[in-house]
């Protein structure tokens, strides 16, 4: 029954409810796929036995007529979510052996909806990266390859690279991701799948290892817009344990996929068309605009004048918060401890051994920008500019309903193509970061392949807590694009 | 009289500001649901939030906010309807998150005033700079193991109010009076138990000196974590003299943090400014700005108890007490209540004297508390009634008081049982006088010969003969009359 891995979540739920197959069969098929594709290094920890138990329980629930919204659906969990009794690593050496005694709100919500977890997925260390190469466990591999060089391994993007690779390779039907500056959307685009970073506050951050608290937001990754809508519906909701979680109701996101976008105004920001933008990315964008026009929407040229400051602002705010959030990894209470001659010596040795280069770089930057004498010039100023960036969007949304942009400036790149210049790597998130700074929802969906056979994604940006419009527009684009390509061997 | 220290070069005055950390009375911690009870088994009151585990998030405890506002109102201070929690970043083994959640630029309480009561009965206003809420750290124990330190996180995350005074105090006594008064107010408000031994109230003192007449402030030193009012005063005095010695020998004071060694009675350097932490304060992104409504503040205001200053003024006005007595009685809400109960409808001066005399002496000498006083207010009041109506003399009352302490019985029952009713029967007293006179004819002659001093001896003898029960006024009168016969 290998074709069980080809189903969408919506399709599988249908099959389960009709009794065409059981959750155990569905789970087993995905466990097999996981084993067959270990070379992709998408998982840090596989939990097949737990998955089988959960599937069995799911079948029993369904028999009893008590099936939840996602009952029996095998998912993967980004290894940034704390999972009770299962190693939670954040892809960092410093969390060696850390097995939480608690379950994050988002994964607990998914469990409550009946979902089955196949294990913990690879990511950039502490979600800091756009390639998955900063993982202590080695980078996950993109299941897609270039037609010009099929042997060259490509990155799946990051930081939710393991999630994107596992979904694209049909190892899991969907996955959780987290997005701080593009960590759901960019890997979704690189791996030809759909992912949404919800509005900041839509999903609880409780139990998610923190990177940058004011930006981090969990979200779903799956192969269709509808699947993302189903997953988000189960993940989202107000959580009194997270003070930044918004007390707003969770709508039926899937119901928003009406296919009707007539009269909708779609903003096309001129600032996202820099000189030298990749021609194929630009073409995909033009194509996307045309599809929306054909469906009765109206493209509107807009300006988001502070866009150019987004990247520098992000690389002040996010490292600043990270430098503080990561202070707790000190070798005292959990994870790695390298003994030292004094407390300070233990700190130094533990943190030097436990954190990778990119994490250390961001802690250093963050510590610097918060230091006495530099705070006003960097952090305080960055926060002011962040407000201006958010105001750009507020103004734009007075005239448009949704904004369409490319997700990333390029398709996936090779695992060995990366440069030592961190800024080049950071540019991957240039189109996704402004949305994050403004706390807005952003969705990436695949719209086609470039001339080298690699998927390209477009991003839809919406008003705060208006994920429904994103799903509606994305659904229309998904139909128009009819993106049916799959990676080699899937 | 201003307090000055005479140096070799002239007179110096002190400039003192105090930072008090007061533990908020609350069953749960500031940002977690863990318990706060003192004295529990180490690490038995710790949530994953308090232990800084990955993915854990703080959620503000509304009761702690209410307590901070209540304290602010008690200090007649500005309440800030919007305040912001910030992270104070530093590494230490008993600071699990690697930062303390505190308030920096926008504290919940702004400027206020505290009236301190000085020994001469005058008062002085000391400015309050601010009050903010913050988390306590855990406790490091370095004496449990030869090479390791042990950490107890029970205290980690407990809510503290940091109350910062303006540098308005000019003597160790004023600093002591400030702490005493602040403690009194906190206890009245029931926002902190003020227990310095258990560490629920801790004090840092900022001290500098300047020649009398000099304007502006000189470099200050901060003396950390002094755990009694007496030690605070000692530390300030020592530190001030140290500054004067340094200045007078041509040196300069460096800004630094110092520790007070109560055994040696001296302060010593803990860390200098060059080694001071850069705390990298920034608004905590896990918490939204704390916004409270004016109606929330007004609701708390409506439930404030009568505060010590108001109570003192009322005791002086309504009961005719002097400033000193009123000040002593209002120092604790319980003692003020006790006084009011005893004094109600009675001679208030007499009530005050008995409470501040025999009652306090007994209270301090044994295992008593306000919940379990040596004598109830009703019994003490009843005893005063017996004095007033002449049933017992003040002298007899002292005995009745002791019997009340021992037995807990009512004064009327004791007087009845022990036959302590004073003798006001002229005949009985005269009879006793006659007996004493008859037994001591020589002394009678001496008095009659002009040796008046012996009169007192006769009074004592007759009192003894009546087991102290003779009405003293009548006795005096009758003896005088006898000698004139």
Automatic annotation (TrEMBL), chain A:
Enumerate the spans annotated as Amidase domain.
25-470
Keywords (A to Z) from UniProt? ATP-binding, Ligase, Nucleotide-binding, Protein biosynthesis, Transferase
> Single GO cellular component annotation?
glutamyl-tRNA(Gln) amidotransferase complex
Q: Which domain of life is it from?
A: Bacteria
Q: Which SUPFAM superfamilies does this one have?
A: Amidase signature (AS) enzymes (SSF75304)
Q: Which reaction does it catalyse?
A: L-glutamyl-tRNA(Gln) + L-glutamine + ATP + H2O = L-glutaminyl-tRNA(Gln) + L-glutamate + ADP + phosphate + H(+)
> Which residues are named in the active-site annotation?
78, 159, 183
Which GO molecular function, any one, fits this protein according to its record?
transferase activity
Which EC main class describes this enzyme? ligase
BP term (GO), one: translation
UniProt key word tRNA-binding: no
Q: Name one Pfam family in it.
A: Amidase
What Enzyme Commission number(s) apply to this enzyme? 6.3.5.7
Record-stated family: Belongs to the amidase family. GatA subfamily.
Describe, as the record does, how this protein assembles with itself and its partners.
Heterotrimer of A, B and C subunits.
User: Could you tell me what this protein does?
Assistant: Allows the formation of correctly charged Gln-tRNA(Gln) through the transamidation of misacylated Glu-tRNA(Gln) in organisms which lack glutaminyl-tRNA synthetase. The reaction takes place in the presence of glutamine and ATP through an activated gamma-phospho-Glu-tRNA(Gln).
Q: What is this protein called?
A: Glutamyl-tRNA(Gln) amidotransferase subunit A
The organism named in the record is: Magnetospirillum moscoviense
This protein's gene is called gatA
TrEMBL record, chain B:
Asn/Gln amidotransferase domain location, by residue? 337-483
| A Pfam family per the record | GatB_N
The family database entries (SMART domains) matched by this protein are listed as: GatB_Yqey (SM00845)
* Superkingdom of source: Bacteria
User: Which E.C. number(s) belong to this protein?
Assistant: 6.3.5.-
Any keyword Ion transport? Answer: no
Q: Which reaction does it catalyse?
A: L-glutamyl-tRNA(Gln) + L-glutamine + ATP + H2O = L-glutaminyl-tRNA(Gln) + L-glutamate + ADP + phosphate + H(+); L-aspartyl-tRNA(Asn) + L-glutamine + ATP + H2O = L-asparaginyl-tRNA(Asn) + L-glutamate + ADP + phosphate + 2 H(+)
- Entry's Gene Ontology BP terms: glutaminyl-tRNAGln biosynthesis via transamidation; translation
Keyword list, A-Z: ATP-binding, Ligase, Nucleotide-binding, Protein biosynthesis, Transferase
User: Which principal EC class is assigned to this enzyme?
Assistant: ligase
One molecular function GO term is: asparaginyl-tRNA synthase (glutamine-hydrolyzing) activity
Q: List the InterPro entries hit by this protein, alphabetically.
A: Asn/Gln-tRNA_amidoTrfase_suB/E, Asn/Gln-tRNA_Trfase_suB/E_cat, Asn/Gln_amidotransferase, Asn/Gln_tRNA_amidoTrase-B-like, GatB, GatB_C_1, GatB_Yqey_C_2, Gln-tRNA_amidoTrfase_suB_CS
What's the subunit arrangement here? Heterotrimer of A, B and C subunits.
What exactly does this protein do? Allows the formation of correctly charged Asn-tRNA(Asn) or Gln-tRNA(Gln) through the transamidation of misacylated Asp-tRNA(Asn) or Glu-tRNA(Gln) in organisms which lack either or both of asparaginyl-tRNA or glutaminyl-tRNA synthetases. The reaction takes place in the presence of glutamine and ATP through an activated phospho-Asp-tRNA(Asn) or phospho-Glu-tRNA(Gln).
As for family, the record states: Belongs to the GatB/GatE family. GatB subfamily.
- What's the protein name? Aspartyl/glutamyl-tRNA(Asn/Gln) amidotransferase subunit B
What is the scientific name of the source organism? Magnetospirillum moscoviense
Taxonomic path: Bacteria, Pseudomonadati, Pseudomonadota, Alphaproteobacteria, Rhodospirillales
């Amino acid at each position: 029954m290998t074709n069980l891995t080809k189903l969408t979540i919506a399709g599988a739920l249908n099959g389960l409810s009709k009794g065409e197959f059981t959750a155990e069969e569905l789970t087993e098929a995905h466990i097999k796929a996981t084993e067959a594709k270990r070379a992709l290094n998408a998982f840090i920890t596989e939990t097949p036995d737990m998955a089988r138990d959960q599937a069995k329980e799911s079948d029993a629930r369904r028999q009893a007529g008590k099936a939840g919204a996602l009952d029996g659906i095998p998912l993967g969990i980004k290894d940034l979510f704390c999972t009770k009794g299962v190693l939670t690593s954040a892809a960092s050496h410093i969390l060696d052996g850390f097995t939480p005694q608690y379950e994050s709100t988002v994964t607990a919500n998914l469990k409550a909806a009946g979902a089955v977890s196949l294990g913990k997925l690879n990511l950039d260390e502490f979600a800091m990266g756009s390639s998955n190469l900063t993982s202590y466990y080695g980078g996950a591999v993109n299941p897609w390859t270039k037609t010009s060089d099929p042997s060259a391994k490509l990155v799946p993007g990051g930081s939710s690279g393991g999630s994107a690779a596992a979904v694209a390779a049909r190892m899991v039907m969907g996955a959780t991701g987290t997005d701080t500056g593009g960590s759901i959307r960019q890997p979704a685009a690189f791996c030809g799948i759909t992912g949404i970073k919800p509005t900041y506050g839509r999903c609880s951050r409780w139990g998610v290892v923190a990177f940058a608290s004011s930006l981090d937001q969990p979200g779903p990754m799956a192969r269709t817009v509808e699947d993302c809508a189903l997953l988000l519906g189960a993940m989202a909701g107000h959580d009194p344990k997270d003070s930044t979680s918004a007390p707003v109701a969770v709508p039926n996101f899937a119901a928003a996929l009406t296919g009707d976008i007539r009269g909708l105004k779609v903003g096309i920001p001129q600032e996202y068309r820099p000189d030298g933008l990749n021609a194929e990315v630009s073409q995909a964008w033009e194509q996307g605009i045309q599809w929306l026009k054909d469906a009765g929407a109206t493209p509107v040229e807009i300006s988001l004048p502070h866009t150019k400051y987004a990247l520098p602002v992000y690389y002040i705010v996010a490292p600043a918060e990270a430098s503080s959030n990561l202070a707790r990894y000190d070798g005292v209470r959990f994870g790695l401890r390298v003994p030292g001659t004094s407390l300070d010596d233990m700190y130094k040795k533990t943190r030097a051994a436990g954190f990778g280069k990119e994490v250390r770089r961001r802690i250093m930057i963050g510590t610097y920008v918060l230091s006495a004498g530099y705070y006003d010039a960097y952090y305080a100023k960055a926060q002011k500019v962040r407000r201006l960036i958010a105001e750009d969007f507020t103004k734009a949304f007075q005239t448009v309903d949704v904004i369409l942009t490319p997700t990333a400036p390029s398709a996936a790149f090779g695992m060995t193509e990366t440069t030592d210049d961190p800024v080049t790597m950071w540019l991957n998130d240039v189109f996704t970061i402004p949305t994050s700074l403004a706390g807005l929802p952003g969705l990436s969906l695949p719209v086609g392949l470039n001339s080298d056979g690699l998927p390209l994604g477009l991003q839809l940006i919406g008003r705060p807590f208006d994920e429904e419009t994103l799903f509606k527009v994305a659904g229309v684009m998904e139909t128009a694009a009819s993106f049916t390509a799959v990676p080699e061997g899937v | 009289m201003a307090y000055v220290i005479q140096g070799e070069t002239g007179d110096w005055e002190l400039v003192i500001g105090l930072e008090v950390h007061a533990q908020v009375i609350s069953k749960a911690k500031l940002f977690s649901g863990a318990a706060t009870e003192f004295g529990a088994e180490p690490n038995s009151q710790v949530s994953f939030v308090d232990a800084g585990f990955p993915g854990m998030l703080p959620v503000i405890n509304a009761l702690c906010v209410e307590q901070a506002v209540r304290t602010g109102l008690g200090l007649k201070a500005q309440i800030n309807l919007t305040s912001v929690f910030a992270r104070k970043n530093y590494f230490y083994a008993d600071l699990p998150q690697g930062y303390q959640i505190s308030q920096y630029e926008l504290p919940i309480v702004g400027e206020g005033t505290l009236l301190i009561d000085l020994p001469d009965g005058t008062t002085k206003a000391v400015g309050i700079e601010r009050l903010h809420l913050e988390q306590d750290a855990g406790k490091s124990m370095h004496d449990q193991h030869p090479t390791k330190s042990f950490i107890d996180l029970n205290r980690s995350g407990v809510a503290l109010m940091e109350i910062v005074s303006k540098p308005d105090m000019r003597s160790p006594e004023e600093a002591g009076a400030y702490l005493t008064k602040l403690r009194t107010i906190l206890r009245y408000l029931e926002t902190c138990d003020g227990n310095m031994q258990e560490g629920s109230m801790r004090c840092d003192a900022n001290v500098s000196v300047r020649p009398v007449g000099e304007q502006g402030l000189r470099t200050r030193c901060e003396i950390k974590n002094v755990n009694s009012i007496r030690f605070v005063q000692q530390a300030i005095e020592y530190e001030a003299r140290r500054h004067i010695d340094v200045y007078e020998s041509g040196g300069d004071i460096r800004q630094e943090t110092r520790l007070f060694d109560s055994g040696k009675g001296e302060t010593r350097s803990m860390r200098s400014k060059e080694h001071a932490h850069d705390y990298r304060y920034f608004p905590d992104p896990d918490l939204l700005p704390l916004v409270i409504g004016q109606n929330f503040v007004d609701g708390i205001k409506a439930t404030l108890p009568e505060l010590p200053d108001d109570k003192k003024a009322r005791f002086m006005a309504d009961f005719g007490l002097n400033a000193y007595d009123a000040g002593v009685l209002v120092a604790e809400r319980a003692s003020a209540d006790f006084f009011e109960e005893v004094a109600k409808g009675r001679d208030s001066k007499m009530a005050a004297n008995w409470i501040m005399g025999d009652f306090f002496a007994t209270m301090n000498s044994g295992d008593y508390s306000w919940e379990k006083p040596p004598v109830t207010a009703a019994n003490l009041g009843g005893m005063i009634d017996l004095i007033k109506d002449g049933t017992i003399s003040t002298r007899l009352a002292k005995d009745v008081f002791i019997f009340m302490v021992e037995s807990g019985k009512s004064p009327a029952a004791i007087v009845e049982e022990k036959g302590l009713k004073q003798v006001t029967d002229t005949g009985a007293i005269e009879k006793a006088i006659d007996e004493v006179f008859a037994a001591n004819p020589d002394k009678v002659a001496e008095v009659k010969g002009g040796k008046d001093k012996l009169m007192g001896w006769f009074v004592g003898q007759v009192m003894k003969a009546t087991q102290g029960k003779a009405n003293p006024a009548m006795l005096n009168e009758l003896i005088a009359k006898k000698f004139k016969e």
